[in-house]
């Protein structure tokens, strides 16, 4: 028969195991406290923690110490609070009148244990008093166990049928706690002492309680499929490692003690020194801990993503091509956002000058994106590294590969932005997806980065293929247009020749001087216009520039406004017309402004005004055409506005905006567009100032010289 010492040793190990089990339950329950809808998280965490502390104290000091009895009282009060919370789930704590008085009575009886502890301290040397206090304490614990078992019975028996499934295992755990206490303290009351065997087996009962609670939690959540979160798994693994380390240390120390003598002391000192050096050198290293975490997650835990389901959803999103489906650019953003459960996103693509501009929005109308979303220098960083940026880490000061200088400031200040995913196609940056913050924020890990990187490359190939198809279609349309224009140019050339001949004959043969003079002016103007048209058409597709002169942009906008403003009807308003001398062709500039004003009028409701203004901006003068019409989307501006042969007007040729931009470029200027759907549009024509011509030419000469970097 085992000796009391053997039972005591067995009890220590069982209580240590019980403490470990309840610590695991505490960590697991803490991780899921936010998703708990029953309101029992706080009570359960408190009960698990106090039970773990009580088991550790019992393992170290035994049942009869004052500290052990104090923590047993705290543990019992915590489990009573759990029972009350379980009653309150369906409101029975208010509808069943005896529950509150019974709970209050049990709490009062259990609190009397504190008074008995103080009496134990007061009569520490009196054996008779100690025996009497022990019997009273055991009697009180019997009362609490009996009343608690009655509560557990009422809790399960009074629950509705669908609630019993959720309560079954928890009620079994509570019944195990107080049922074992009832038997233990009944024997203790009769024998005037706690039996050593039952004290030791009490730890086994606590382990069983932890198992029942675990089964109940698993059944209530995932139909017996135990799938803890990654954080809990790592915490549990850490506790297992610590426990294994403690067992190893105890075993090693015991083995060394068998050596005896000085050899034992030297071996113990050496073992302690080596293990201490290893722990101090390895554990504080963040790189080592991070590497271990990633390796363990990759090889020991189930993946977060169901890759088959993700691929099917990705394919369905990208493959949608119905008439009501969003554009490809919007579907690209949605495909990436679906992976991380992001609520919104943006797509930035490369413009002709190398900078990144907004190409599409997906459920993010409030994001304020500048006209140049990212400079060409920062684009080079993402092409080189292909780095997925966690913007929360960036805001916290983490800088892995120098991405702090590559991410534009507007993205850092946009706190709804969560991550930046580059789309690379053969080491060329095709686009950048800005992901909005998901409803449940979390930290991106290695699995997110791997999946986003693969999806980004796949989406980049789709975008590159789409751009290639658009370029081929545009080239074929240009070819057709050039064939048609060859006939048009031939006819116009013949007409110009005839008009020129008519003009020369009229100079020789017209008899009426007044008629001759009027005819000459008319014919000469017509011929000049036709020749100018021929010259402009012949330059399309070339790299030539228009002959420019010093003109006043304010006079141009006033002239255009007069053409549209009839007496009593003001359609076009000039809001700012200070002198603004620019280098331009007056005829071309008037034609550009006329086209922009006409488009603004067409896009505005009847009676809405269009505004013109001329300003000086640094080395450039600007003409702004502003309307409050229907506006344009980022996708339309990016993919359709300046594309030839694409028109939203019935019977339109679709070359007006393209022609206006080419005219501005031929005068060494640029045409910029800002627009919001439902708010209106702003077209800005920027041309070099006449006074800054020398400075601009010197800057361009320096940038074109050898050894200089062209911006």
UniProtKB/TrEMBL annotation:
Keywords of the record: ATP-binding, Kinase, Membrane, Nucleotide-binding, Phosphoprotein, Transferase, Transmembrane, Transmembrane helix, Two-component regulatory system
GO biological process entries: phosphorelay signal transduction system
Reactions it catalyzes: ATP + protein L-histidine = ADP + protein N-phospho-L-histidine
Membrane-spanning residues: 12-30, 42-60, 66-87, 99-121, 133-157, 169-188, 200-218, 239-260, 266-286
Residues covered by the Histidine kinase domain: 487-691
Protein's UniProt keywords contain Phosphoprotein: yes
Superkingdom as given in the UniProt entry: Bacteria
Matches recorded under SMART domains: HATPase_c (SM00387)
Protein name in the entry: histidine kinase
């Amino acid at each position: 028969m085992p000796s009391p010492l053997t039972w005591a040793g067995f009890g220590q190990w069982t209580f240590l195991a019980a403490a470990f089990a309840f610590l695991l339950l505490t960590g697991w329950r803490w991780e899921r406290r936010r998703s708990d809808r029953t309101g029992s998280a706080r009570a359960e965490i408190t009960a698990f923690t106090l039970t773990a502390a009580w088991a550790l104290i019992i393992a170290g000091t035994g049942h009869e110490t004052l500290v052990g009895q104090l923590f047993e009282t705290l543990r019992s009060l915590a489990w009573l609070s759990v029972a009350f919370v379980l009653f309150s789930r369906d409101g029975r704590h208010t509808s069943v009148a005896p529950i509150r008085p019974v709970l209050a009575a049990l709490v009062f009886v259990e609190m009397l244990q504190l008074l008995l502890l103080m009496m134990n301290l007061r009569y520490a040397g009196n054996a008779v008093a100690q025996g009497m206090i022990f019997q009273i304490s055991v009697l009180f614990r019997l009362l609490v166990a009996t009343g608690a078992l009655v509560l557990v019975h009422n809790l399960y028996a009074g629950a509705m049928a669908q609630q019993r499934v959720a309560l079954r295992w928890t009620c079994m755990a509570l019944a195990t706690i107080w049922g074992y206490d009832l038997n233990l303290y009944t024997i203790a009351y009769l024998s005037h002492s706690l039996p050593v065997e039952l004290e030791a087996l009490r730890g086994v009962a606590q382990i069983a309680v932890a198992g029942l609670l675990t089964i109940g939690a698993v059944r209530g959540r995932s139909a017996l499929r135990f799938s803890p979160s990654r954080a809990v798994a790592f915490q549990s693994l850490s506790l297992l490692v610590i426990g294994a380390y403690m067992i190893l240390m105890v075993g090693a120390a015991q083995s060394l003690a068998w050596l005896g003598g000085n050899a034992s002391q030297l071996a113990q000192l050496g073992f302690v020194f080596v293990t201490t050096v290893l722990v101090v050198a390895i554990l504080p290293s963040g790189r080592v801990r991070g590497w271990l975490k990633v390796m363990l997650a990759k090889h020991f835990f189930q993946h977060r993503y169901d890759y088959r389901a993700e691929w099917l959803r990705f394919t369905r999103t990208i493959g949608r091509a119905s008439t009501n489906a969003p554009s490809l650019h919007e579907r690209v953003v949605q495909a990436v956002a679906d992976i991380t459960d992001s609520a919104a996103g943006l797509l930035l693509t490369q413009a002709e000058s190398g900078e990144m501009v907004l190409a599409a929005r997906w459920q993010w109308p409030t994001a304020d994106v500048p006209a140049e979303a990212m400079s060409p220098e920062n684009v080079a960083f993402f092409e080189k590294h292909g780095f997925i940026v966690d913007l929360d880490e960036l805001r916290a000061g983490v800088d892995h590969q120098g991405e702090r200088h590559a991410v534009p400031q507007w993205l850092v200040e946009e706190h709804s932005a969560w991550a930046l995913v580059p789309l690379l196609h053969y080491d060329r940056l095709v686009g950048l997806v800005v992901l909005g913050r998901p409803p449940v924020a979390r930290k991106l890990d290695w699995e997110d980065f791997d999946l986003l990187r693969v999806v980004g490359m796949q989406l980049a190939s789709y975008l590159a293929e789409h751009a290639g198809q658009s370029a081929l279609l545009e080239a074929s349309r240009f070819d057709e247009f050039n064939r048609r224009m060859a006939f048009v140019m031939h006819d116009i050339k013949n007409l110009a020749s005839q008009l020129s001949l008519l003009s020369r004959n009229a100079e020789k043969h017209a008899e009426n001087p007044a008629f001759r003079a009027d005819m000459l002016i008319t014919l000469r103007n017509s011929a000049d216009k036709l020749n100018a048209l021929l010259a402009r058409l012949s330059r399309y597709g070339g790299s030539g520039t228009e002959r420019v002169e010093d003109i006043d942009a304010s006079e141009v906008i006033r002239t255009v406004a007069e053409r549209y403003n009839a007496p009593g009807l003001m359609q076009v308003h000039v809001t700012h017309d200070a002198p603004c001398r620019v280098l331009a062709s007056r005829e071309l500039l008037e034609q550009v402004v006329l086209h922009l004003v006409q488009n603004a009028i067409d896009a505005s409701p009847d009676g809405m005004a269009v505004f013109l203004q001329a300003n000086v901006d640094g080395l450039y003068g600007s003409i702004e055409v502003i309307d409050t019409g229907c506006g344009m989307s980022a996708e339309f501006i990016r993919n359709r506005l300046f594309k030839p042969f694409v028109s939203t007007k019935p019977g339109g040729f679709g070359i007006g905006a393209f022609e206006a931009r080419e005219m501005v470029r031929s005068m060494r200027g640029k045409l910029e567009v800002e627009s919001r759907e439902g708010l209106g549009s702003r077209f800005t024509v920027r041309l070099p100032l006449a006074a800054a011509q020398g400075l601009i030419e010197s800057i361009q000469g320096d940038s074109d010289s050898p050894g200089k970097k062209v911006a």
